[in-house]
Amino acid sequence: MKAIKIVAITGSTRKNSSNFKILKYISEHIKSDFEVDIFEDLDRIPHFNPDLDTENPPEEISLFRKKIIEADGIIICTPEYVFSLPGSLKNALEWCVSTTIFSNKKVGLITASASGEMGHEQLLLIMKTLEAKFDDNTQLLIQGIRGKIDAEGKIINEETEIALQNFIKNFENQFL
Length: 176
Known about the structure:
Layout: E1 4-10, H1 18-29, E2 34-39, H2 59-70, E3 73-78, H3 87-94, E4 106-113, H4 117-129, E5 139-143, H5 158-173
Parallel strand pairs: 1-2, 1-3, 3-4, 4-5
């Protein structure tokens, strides 16, 4: 059986962020028939420019879109910055609006931040607009993340570990 390809996008540009650690945790705990590629290059994506969007997009955009097209599913794990999505993640998603690459694509959405409520709400709205396929079982808000994960990426809060295990199981079930 061919591996199920997942692109995991971290919404933080900080190296070894809590969001990256969560995606590493997921990649280590997901079933072996899933192949997870963590995309950490949001900082390399140029500012959205509608004039370049469809005719001749920058190479970084073509490569980003290709990753999404070729993936069987997408997981996004993002912090909240100033009660919103990080600009770099929103920028990357804006490059996808004129396409159908997220239409009916199976996605898992996680916001892991201090509060995260408003950022998570915006992430859900944007992904609905892009026609991504998710439900209440494949989205998760983790508040107070810094106190729930250690420097090595170990989940140190039992409730959070259970929530992540349930998220992984529900995400996997989309592909059965």
